Amino acid sequence: MIAAGAGGAAPGAGMAQGGTVLELRDLHVRIVSRQGTVRAVDGVSFDVAAGEALGLVGESGSGKSMTLRAVLGVLPPEARVTSGEILLDGVNLVTRPQSELNRIRGRKMSMIFQEPMSALNPVMRVGWQIAEGPQVQLGFSRARAAERALELMRRVGIPDPERRFRAYPHEFSGGMRQRVMIRESGVSLVFVTHDLPVVAQICQRVAVMYGAQLVESGAVADVLLNPWHPYTRGLVRSAPDFDYVRESLVPIPGAPPSLINPPPGCRFHPRCEFAEEDCRVSETPLRLLPGGRATACLHYERCMDAAAADRAARA
Amino acid sequence: MTAADGAGPEGLLAAHGVAVYFPVGSQVMARVQGEERRLRAVDGVDLDIRPGEALALVGESGSGKSTLALALCGLRPVDAGDITLNGKVVGARRSPADRRRVQMVFQDPYSSLNPRLTVGGVLRELLRVHHVVPRGQVSAESKRLLSLVGLPEEAVGAYPRQFSGGQRQRIAIARALALRPEVLIADEPVSALDVSVQATILNLLASLRAELGLSLLLISHNLAVVRHLCDRVAVMYLGRIVEVAPTEELFSDPRHPYTRALLAAIPRLAAGAPDIGAPAITGDPPSPLQIPTGCRFRTRCPIAQPRCEQEDPELASDAQAPEHLAACHFAFEPAPPGLARAGEQA
Asked: What is the pTM for the complete model shown?
């Protein structure tokens, strides 16, 4: 869907805690609507190291896009960051004035669409489509927006951006090569998607969102091949896997939770095959576990066992 | 092209040398300057869809997959070649009966449904216009269609906006099935949906095929989906089919260098997936306004020879595997060094 890169800081320049470029601390975003207050992002914390690619995985309404929009400072007008911090190179973006944010955003962060063929207008030159963002959102002049677009294209490793500026979308290859180029250009990445194999290919770490909260995080190989949260396991089992053709795919039963009146306790419990009484009442914050992994599941041992059985079935 | 009646070797729905061109820019200038001013989106395709099979059509964006699908469905006229149904050529204007036999489901369930009609309204209108069932049975048939795609009967009274993406795709499938087609063409039917919902739609397509004996042409960029659902795979490059084979054979023993490159680029969940020993192709596909002479893949091909510049390779098979066709001069020769086939690796 969307990928955002944060980075480009001079080495050591105000970098917080051992090379962390971007850090979210207990971020809350609320949207006031006629139906009630939507908890669009509900206490999300993660960090991204210099040069690291973090996959932020979740489905529609999980809060992943709203998290990213908060980081980029492009929330819709009715949405507000109500608490928490977004630290970019140690600077808390939440408390900075808009003018400064625009400058930081221009220099240190960018946003890329993953599916160029569906996200782009097929009859408009690519460069002007990229320039449209700075023009509309930041009020740049046409010339300055074009310059900015060229810079962004250069940053993500598109060769010969001056020529490519005038190309139409069909003259670009599919998303895969662009994603690979993103990886090679050395920026830190927050890669937002629900395509797990692509996350496995591009990212070192992954964070899984459900119901506006993080439910699991850790190294990609650990989390995707041995999930410690039933929602992550559900995602893995529902996606077709090229190396494992099954009789039928296993969808996650039920529907995502309301973010106006989320279920009490674990937000996944109404859809979870392992749910117990305590899941319906206790808060389930993300707990840090050995191996740099974290899960919000109260009974993650059961999920571990089930995932081990899944792996045995594959073999 | 022998069978004139019945589903002979040509299959149920088939393309014979089909081409679809789009005019680009000034046609007057084109004549004056003698340049090509047409975009050859589909450029000589031979392909057959057999009764009851699931055939995948894969290839990069811009390879002409969707245009070919529209042509096969009769939604886009062809500029050359023929499309046959049961071996009989169907003209530019299909009869209502022929139109019913091939139906299509599109990628975006949000924009492919009329927002002003209830789901029941959409289905009833179709059933009446095409006289699918007697008037008195139209309502009952609408409900039957909804239950076929796993939606409750009450859905007849609701509008498309009241449904989630996955449910809308079910409605779109019900609409396509209303006309009792023999072939369902699905163009990226799940790529706009969430992963957990994709599974339900893919399972639905698989079970409908089994229950109704439908032929399915699935257009997808996701080779995991293709491997899961399809019996055969056709690979398209720059307007032409370059390889077609039974699914497992294509994935285990690809013969066209483009297919090898596609397989090498598959994102895989498990690390350490087998390396099929193909170099990744570089560069972008050439513009369909300037298709290379000879083999259209030669400009990106790691094994191109001078011959490839002159001769356009035909889609052909060898004696050992008549079901496996490839359009490469070297498809059935021993693999050149550094390009060992999967089956030949230790």
From this structure: 0.81
